[in-house]
Amino acid sequence: MPATSISSDTPVPVPSIHMIAVGQIPASSSTCQATPLSSTSIIPQYHLQSEFAKLLDASVSANTHKSHRAGMAAYYKVCKLLDCAPSPPSLNSVVQFVLHSSSSGLAYSTVRSYLSAISFHCKLQSVPDPTPEFLVTKLLQGMKRLKHKADTRLPITKTILHSIIQILPIICTNAFEATLFSAAFSLAFHGFLRVGELTVNTRKGHHQNTIQIHNLSINQDTQSLLLSIRFSKTDQFGKGTVLQIDRQGGVACPYQLVKKYVSIRPEGSGPLFRHFDLSPLTRYQFTGVLCKAVKHLDLPARSGYKSHSFRIGASTDLALKGFSSDDIQRSGRWKSASYKSYIRIPKF
């Protein structure tokens, strides 16, 4: 059975931006300074500027900020190289940027991300946005057709998951680590989880968006796990979702493996998955042990197995069992048809 998503009953207000930053690119969006754009600039009063910056900074995720900074930096660099006026962005400067990016070998997805940064900047500055123009969209479509690369990530099927869990005691340093990774891998598969929901980027990094121990409830009566996911890629405002993951049976049963791990997990708050020394499970460690297991099993095309392969495998598993598109989309918490790219139907 697929993981069941239960929306949280706690309403969370969705913030909106009522003021527009003008005059310069905010530090959170780019390190490049722009010239004043109009005489109608909305500049918050001095005593409200810190609140203005705080709200604007919180309006998008940290990853989006990072993407915007990279996009605007690339745009300004190309404009300087080609001697194009960068601000405000014009149809000419954006077209030149797309052409230069394509000829430099940048991927379609990267250029699309950079154009999103330019679009965001234009809206922030209250100036016309040239990125939706017909010529720009057609150039981008041309890039997609010519530079499209197939997703080579492979699905971790249930059979492969069973094999991985069975050899973890051999490749892990001790029994505790084998129990930890068995639970993490099984939960990643059966919960359709993103690796960022289970791990932190660095041992000392922020982990408030990682699943915490208090987000997990083990119901022994129904033999199921209730997992509260406060934030996710498609839930930036923290509306929240509760996943119910039932007992599956077999060596990869998420209920049994997570229950066993929790029974030996060091006491205390913090991320659900952490080592015996209390340090949180990192993305690097998660991926590293997975690669080690795949190599040990000598799977063909083993470079295709990534941390996202659990989510791909779970989606493919439901599709092969005949579950509907709505079931798959709901289980993976997708908000669009992007779930289709996760399904790998074998060709005979």
Biggest beta sheet summary: 4 strands, antiparallel
CATH architecture of the largest domain, by name, is: Orthogonal Bundle
Which strand-content bin applies to the residues? 5-15%
Portion in helices: 40-55%
Specify the CATH class of the largest domain: Mainly Alpha
SSE ordering: EHHHHHHHHEEEHHHH
Strand arrangement within the widest β-sheet reads 1-4-3-2
Number of domains: 2
Mean pLDDT: 83
| CATH fold-level label of the largest domain | hpI Integrase, Chain A
The CATH homologous superfamily of the largest domain is termed Intergrase catalytic core
The residue ranges in which pLDDT falls below 50 over 5 or more consecutive positions are 7-40
Class of secondary structure makeup: mainly alpha
Give the tally of β-strands: 4
> How many helical stretches?
12
Based on CA atoms alone, the radius of gyration comes out at 23 Å
Instruction: Report, as a whole number of angstroms, the end-to-end distance.
Output: 26 Å
Shape: globular
Nutshell version of this structure?
By secondary structure, the protein is mainly alpha-helical.
Structure commentary:
One of its GO terms (molecular function) is DNA binding. Keywords: DNA recombination, DNA-binding. By secondary structure, the chain is mainly alpha-helical. The protein folds into two domains: 46-147, Tyrosine recombinase, N-terminal domain (DNA polymerase, domain 1, Orthogonal Bundle), CATH 1.10.150.130; 153-342, Orthogonal Bundle (hpI Integrase, Chain A). Helices cover 45% and strands 6% of the residues. It has twelve helices and four strands. It has a four-stranded antiparallel β-sheet with strand order 1-4-3-2, covered by helices on one side. Helix 6 (158-171) crosses helix 10 (283-297).
